[in-house]
Amino acid sequence: MENETVKKQVVFSAIQPSGTITLGNYLGAIRNWVRMQDDYHCLYALADLHTITVRQDPAVMRQNILNAYASVMACGIDVDKAPFFIQSHNPNHSQIAWILDCYTQFGELSRMTQFKDKSLRHADNINAGLFTYPALMAGDILLYQADKVPVGADQKQHIELTRDIAMRFNQLYGNVFRIPEGFIPKDGARVMSLQNPTAKMSKSDENINGCVLLTDPDTVILKKFRRAVTDSEMKVRYAPGKDGINNLMSIYSAVTGLSFEQIERDFDGKGYGDFKTAVGEAVIAELSPIRKRYEELLKDRGYIEECYSKSDAFAYRLSSRTIDKAMKKIGFILPKK
Ligand code: TYM
Fold first, then answer.
1. Which has the least CB within 10 A, 148, 193, 216, 254?
2. pTM score, two decimals?
3. 306 Cα to the center of ligand 1, angstroms
4. Which residues are catalytic?
């Protein structure tokens, strides 16, 4: 009974549509988005504004947006419970980003590891957007007064900056923004490349075998796991320095719910070949139904449009309250409604 009177917390998160969704995105974030739908007021976004910090081909970008929208839906998002909108359809995001740019320090942005990594990878295009990107992300979260932000471990630094910006703003103007917290899963928070297990699994991985995509056919998934880089010990156990096996054990544990001790016991006396096949099969059991739903959804463009349109409208209404409040506090005069 008591639970019914406790106000549900607000959950917000987003994903960039910069290519096909990976097993890392799924285990680190989207699986939690789905799990949280019933217990929280959830709101999710396709962060398309974020993708243009890196140059995009227009036709490919349009296709990526639709594909990514359909794949997140296919993971099990129900827009009637958890509206899932397209960031660029809500102008409040660009508006809050400019405002927050003016409350974020150059030194803070210079310390962001993602900025440092991306400027190394795109040395010919270190644009201002790449630098101020964390302020746009902070705005995404703060517009909806989110309590919890389900993300993978790589976003932790951005969430901490979001908190700092919000606290600074609140100190100046009173309680405008709720201070959010990251919600990072116990297993799967940092899925590593299958080919280079010291680097994060990423869609921009040069070696396609390092990254498992939600759209990969079953045979391809199995092949990628069978080729995964491991060590020469040939014993399935979690230990420092065994990055490849540690990564496979983390993935297996995240997908099956088995503890590391249980996995070590189950594979005692068996070789890496058996283990890699078992991980591949467990991942296929999880991803295969998602891929089938994804293929179905892609055929129904009208339904996808309907889902994002109603979500866009909801997000705009909700975020307008926060932006109006923030602007009034700063000293702007609001337009007559
Ligand atoms: P993005 O699009 O790079 O990734 C989406 C989500 O997937 C998680 N993730 C991983 N988790 C575990 N292992 C991996 N190898 C892995 N790779 C990615 C990310 O942590 C993320 O949760 N800036 C964000 C998108 C964003 C956002 C926001 C997130 C924009 N606005 C507001 C939260 C709140 C990004 O680029 O994520």
1. 148
2. 0.96
3. 25
4. 118, 200, 203
